[in-house]
Amino acid sequence: MKKLSDRAAEDYRLVTLAVEENDQMAYAQLMDRYRNSIFHMMLKMVRNKDDAEDLTIEAFGKAFRKLDSYSPSYAFSTWLFKIASNNCIDFIRKKRMKMLSIDEPISDEGGADYSNSLKADLLDPEERFIRQQRRRIMQELMERMSDKYRQMIELRYFEELSYQEIAEQLNMPLGTVKAQLFRAKELLYDILKNAKAQRGL
């Protein structure tokens, strides 16, 4: 392995802690080191602050899921930026500018489908009832989550607090909030998939 710069060596140390020990602080520190750079790159690509924030979280989530495949033969930042860029390009290509990444449809007991997107920029008056039903279904599914992750979803998507506001309210580092929020979204997505499978859809 080639000699690493001080920054690259620290990145590799954090990656090793995250992969081998599932060290949550290591994940949070990696986010703290690169989230601003990733966010500004996303913002330049989509020109929407909210989308850029969510794409930043998604980029870290995708990177963290495949963190064990990272090799220190190239810079962690290069590897991370490539993942973020590809994810953003996919987002733009799919023309999903009004949706968050969780967009599988879900059904209620009567078989009616509702988008489980947690946020849309605009809603027509005719969509208000569907939005209420969607929230009811989402809240029922969220009861299966731990208190920590359910609170994250509620604060971000139902109370519509910013990441900074959540960090201040919970007295937590901003990086930890973003890492836990991504995990909460991932858990919710798994619950949604399981609920759909149980209905035989």
Automatic annotation (TrEMBL):
One of its GO terms (biological process) is DNA-templated transcription initiation. The keyword Protein transport does not apply. Residues 30-96 form the RNA polymerase sigma-70 region domain. Residues 136-188 form the RNA polymerase sigma factor 70 region 4 type domain. GO terms for molecular function: DNA binding; sigma factor activity. The keyword Flavoprotein does not apply. Keywords: Sigma factor, Transcription, Transcription regulation. Belongs to the sigma-70 factor family. ECF subfamily. This is RNA polymerase sigma-24 factor. The gene is rpoE.
